[in-house]
Amino acid sequence: MPIFGLQPAGLLQTIFENIEVAVAVIDDDERIVFANSTALQLFGTADGAPVRFQDWRQNFRFEDLAGNEVPIEKSAVVKALRGEHVESQELRLKMPDGKVKWIHVWAYHFCAMGLKGVIALIVDQTSEVELRKTAAQLHRMETFGAVAAGLTHDFNNILNTISTNIGIAETTESCTPELQLRFDHISEAVDTAAELVRRLMQFSRTQDLHRRTLQANDVVRGALRLVQPLLRKNISLAVNLADALPTVYADSSQMEQVIINLILNALDAMPNGGALRVSTSAGNHNQKAVSHADNNQEFICISVADTGIGIPGEVQSMIFEPFYTTKPAGKGTGLGLSSSYGIVRQHNGDIEVQSEPSRGTTFNVFFPTEVSAVS
Length: 375
Fold this sequence. Notes:
The chain has 3 domains: about 5-125, Beta-Lactamase; about 130-205, Helix Hairpins (Orthogonal Bundle), CATH 1.10.287; about 210-375, Heat Shock Protein 90, CATH 3.30.565. The chain is about 40% helix and about 25% strand. The longest helix is centred in the middle third of the chain and has 45 residues, at about 125-170. Strand 6 (about 100-110) and strand 7 form a beta hairpin. The termini are far apart. The strands form 3 sheets. Strands 3-2-1-7-6-5-4 form a 7-stranded antiparallel sheet. A 5-stranded mixed sheet has the order 9-11-12-14-13. With about 375 residues, the protein is α+β, with helices and mostly antiparallel strands. It has helices at about 10-20, 35-40, 55, 75-80, 125-170, 175-205, 215-225, 250-270, 335-345, 370-375, and strands spanning about 20-25, 30-35, 50, 60-65, 90-95, 100-110, 115-125, 210-215, 235-240, 250, 275-285, 300-305, 350-355, 360-370. Helix 5 (about 125-170) packs antiparallel against helix 6 (about 175-205), helix 6 packs across helix 9 and helix 8 runs antiparallel to helix 9.
């Protein structure tokens, strides 16, 4: 777009077009009269022609760091056009296609070359923010894991004490049928608590693994056989297992548990029916979340995808945390995904989620191949 409606001078145009900062000029009539290529790539305009700022802005949703929408009258550009001093703004930008970007915006009022208006500088910080969020999430999960490890040890001792004393009490002559019924209820509660502790152990990676050489496809087939009775008539299942996958060195029952957890989650996400897809593949993983791995490490990938309700972007970073659940009260413990996360990480693997509301969810689980796992 020509700067100020004129053919730009070479030096100024070169500077604007080669910096990785979006630059836009808005005149006092709130028309966008210039946008460099970075701005056009980030936001776009109508065929490069001048457009009104307010008409352009309505295609996007700007939010502050707390998730509150920033109305146009409080935007940096409009405040600067009013002659106000404007502090820089860190914003979350929701694009028309549903994608989210994190941006930093500056706006300065100017008067030059017979034109008055505002020059806006926008830096796309999405990559940096996502890296910080990933690092913070990993730190938070490691902290949760350390806490969970201590809790599971203490709870196991408590549950063992309860179970032992119930066993002793049940053998006494004074144990009436009424007392036996109460002991049975206590034993059931202890079993339930023990299952929760077991899942916490999976998350904290303190459980013993019984590893052996496995074919991932065999584990997937075993998991599908177990969940087959739960597949409702309104659920279509597609299975695509890659041929000649490298072997993995893993605990088959724990690996199977991960797959079952993900399938059950997928079924819960499709109360009105839909498509469930389970697949395997081989290849490298970027390993952004597995700190010890090198870039050449090989993995097999197990994918579980659904066409269900999806997961809002703002909660995706929390779904692997213990006791976090989007299900109604009493419908879930919030330990299914966290235990899956712990199992995968104890195998030196990784688990990722890709999801959009109303468009379904895909979980990709990466296990290192056998050579990578034992090296």
